[in-house]
Every structure is written in C-alpha cells, then in structure tokens.
Amino acid sequence: MIKAENITLAFGDREVLKNISATFEPGKTNLIIGKSGSGKTVFLKCIVGLLNINSGKIWYGDILFSGLDFRSMKDIRKEMGMLFQGSALFDYMTVEENVRFPLDMFTNFTYKEKLDRVNFCLDRVNIVNSNHLFPAELSGGMKKRVAIARAIALKPRYLFCDEPNSGLDPKTAIVIDELIKEITVELNTTTIVNTHDMNSVMEIGEKIIFIEDGEKCWEGSNKEILQSDCTLLNDFVFANALAKQLKQSSEI
C-alpha cells in the first residue's frame, strides 16, 4: 500500500499540488486522471521520489518514504517497476538487453538466471522470438509490452505507469490495459496508472483519483464515475467522449 498525506508542492510562487491525500491499494489498478496540466504527472513524480514535496508525507507500507535520504530510498526503488510514457527503451540495446537491464543493476543473478527471467517476462507479455531485435524494429504496441516486461523483471511490489496508452491505436491500448490489470493481480502489486484515457478509466479503473488544478476533486471507482455530481469531473468525461467522437469522425 502507498499512502499520500496532505501533499503540497510549489514551483516558485505557483502552487502545483494543493493538500492532496490518497491511498493506493495493492492488487488493484489505481488511476490518477485529469487533463493536461492538472498536476497528475507531478503528483506521480512526488510519489516515486523524483520530486521533493514541500509538505506532507508519503508512506510505502509502514515506511515514511518522503523522510528518507536518496541512498535510503534505493531499497524501496528496487521494488518499483516503471512504465514510462514513451516506453523509454534504450535504442542501442536489444529487447533482451533492455529487459535484463534492471536485473544487471540490482541482482547478483548468473547470466542464465537473468536470461530465464527475461524470457519468462517476454513470454508473459506475448513477445516471442524477439530477443535480438532493437526498439527501432518494433511496433508501438510491442515497445510497450517490452517496457512492461522490463518493469516486472524484478517482481515489483509497486508498479507505476505514466500514460501507458499514449500513441497507441484503440485495439492495442485495450491489450495494454488488460495486461497491466492481469499483472497487477498476479503479482499483487500496488499499481498506479497516470492517464487521461477514458477507455482505460472505464476498463480498469478500480480506484480513481481525479485531479484538477492541483487539487483532488473526486475519488471513486469506474462504476461510480458516471453517477458523479462533481461538475469538473463530468466536464472532463464529456470532453474526452467528444474528442473521441471527433477523432473517429475524422478517420472515416
């Protein structure tokens, strides 16, 4: 479990996060949603320790993560898996080398043990016979799946996904959503997904935090979101639905 308590962050005179509290549960897909510039990406970066908060607390289980120094954070970071928006694969590394990277960094496994784990993870995300390919030879969906394989290589307790469906067609996006959900259940990870994709919200949003202008405006599940009386959330949902319809019309 990850708990954020009264998180506040300012860049100069501009307050970006305003007293946000949230609890993210293991074995569930926890979504942070909001329009571009709402503060959701900044909030995610605070949770993983990439940005220092001005006030508040971030807990990983019973460990006060926000109170640790950089070196002390390393032990918890070994338990994190990260899926970045652009996949962030190393262009000069093969698929196998990309997935093996965290194993090289954080384990003393033999080469065979690493290779076995790499192949297991690639098989889990339905990537086969691609170990020696480079990222430039992969489709967008394949890159995302390789990035997921790398993210789960260390069997993380915590899985963070930043806009996992960015740049993907709707069919591939559904595959990635389902994969994230399945792995969350299998590994019992505390999974946090940062997204503005309403398809993801409705498919895998077991717990949803809606942020607008740096404030948490709504919290609930995908079963509750359409019955919300939060005007800002309803505007966000409607805007996403309208944008999807316009995009589909332009493709006809």
Question: Quick gist of this model?
Answer:
With 252 residues, the protein is α/β, with parallel strands linked by helices.
Query: What is the number of helical segments per DSSP (H or I, 4+ residues)?
Result: 8
The domain count comes to 2
The shape is globular
Global mean pLDDT: 88
The CATH H-level homologous superfamily of the largest domain = P-loop containing nucleotide triphosphate hydrolases
Main features:
252 residues, 10 strands, 2 domains, alpha/beta, 6-stranded mixed beta sheet, Rossmann fold
Walkthrough of the structure:
With 252 residues, the protein is α/β, with parallel strands linked by helices. 40% of the residues lie in helices and 25% in strands. The protein is built from eight helices and ten strands. The chain has a six-stranded mixed β-sheet, sandwiched between helices. Strand 9 and strand 10 form a beta hairpin. Helix 3 (95-106) packs across helix 4 (111-124), helix 3 runs parallel beside helix 5 (140-151) and helix 5 (140-151) runs parallel beside helix 6. The chain is globular. The model has no long low-confidence stretch (mean pLDDT 88).
